[in-house]
Amino acid sequence: MNWIESPTMQRLEHYLDLVTFRHELISSNLANVDTPGYHTQDVDFENEVRRADQRLEDDPVSPHVREVKGLIERPDGNNVSLERETMALSQVQLQYRAGVELLRNQIHMVQSAINEGK
Amino acid sequence: MNLFGVLDINASALLAERERAEVVTSNMANAETTSTPGGGPYKKQLVVFGTEQPGQGKFALALSRFGDLHARGVKVERVVQDNAPPIRRYEPGHPDADTDGYVSFPDIDPVEEMVNLMGAAQAYQLNVSAVQATKAMISETIQILT
Fold it and tell me: Can you give the pTM of this predicted structure?
């Protein structure tokens, strides 16, 4: 096992993949805020992270996308809630930053080893 | 889809909302237009939005990590003409008056159009924040190795 395939790196990779995927869905919800008949889409994030950690190494990530229940539907059949989506957007941004920061940490550890700790 | 694909979704919304704002301002500008090239008063236009499968070249598809793509962009599906009957006002001196002295004006409520314009502006702003979020995420990724 080399350092780039370490379990930590792989978990971080799955995590960032999932955060990006959720960001896609939120962007799609925000883009379709005025599209008649559009329903809010999301993933069960915690569940998907757990699932991604359990799956085999080379399986592609395929998160279950679900329609969010319990939102108020407007007369045109659209149920996108601006408040929910903007909150989710800032959440995703912070989660992504956390993931990237941890990844940097890992790489810097290896860099420090290459430089013999100097 | 990667983060650049998300930017495409954000951009599709900016484009669609701008088209909506254009149509609404055209309605507002022509609220008193009594003659058009097609004859008769101006008719109110309405945009209808629809979802759009984000553009996918073979390259983007090869890079895509998820078999099933759910995220959708938005586009102006069509622009429909409101066929509400015109409002007739008695103005005998008007060049477009009919034989009884009535002029047909478009049935456009400026308040309704203004609300629609505000809706478009708000949605535009919202998607600009989404673009900024996506951009921030991309530049964070670029800085991993620095």
Answer: 0.85
* Separation of alpha carbons A7 and B17, rounded Å: 44
Rounded CA-CA distance B43/B85 in Å is 9
- Whether B137 sits inside 8 A of A96 (CB atoms) is yes
Residue A34 structure tokens: 């005025």
Paired strand residues for B104: B88
Those residues with Cβ within 8 angstroms of residue B46's Cβ, 6 or more apart along the chain or in another chain: B23, B79, B80, B81, B82
Question: What's chain A's Rg over C-alpha atoms?
Answer: 18
Query: Degrees (nearest 5) of the Cα angle B3, B9, B12?
Result: 145
Question: Per the structure block, which two tokens stand in for B1?
Answer: 């889809």
Complete DSSP assignment for A6-22 = SHHHHHHHHHHHHHHHH
Between B20, B66, B70, which is nearest A41 by CB?
B70
ipTM for the complex shown? 0.84
- H-helix or E-strand spanning residue B75: strand B73-81
Which tokens sit at A40?
């809010």
Question: Which residues in chain A have their CB less than 8 angstroms from residue B127's CB?
Answer: 30-31
CA dist A63 and A15 (Å) reads: 12
Q: What is the pLDDT of residues B74-114, one digit of tens each?
A: 999 999 998 889 999 999 988 888 889 999 999 999 999 99
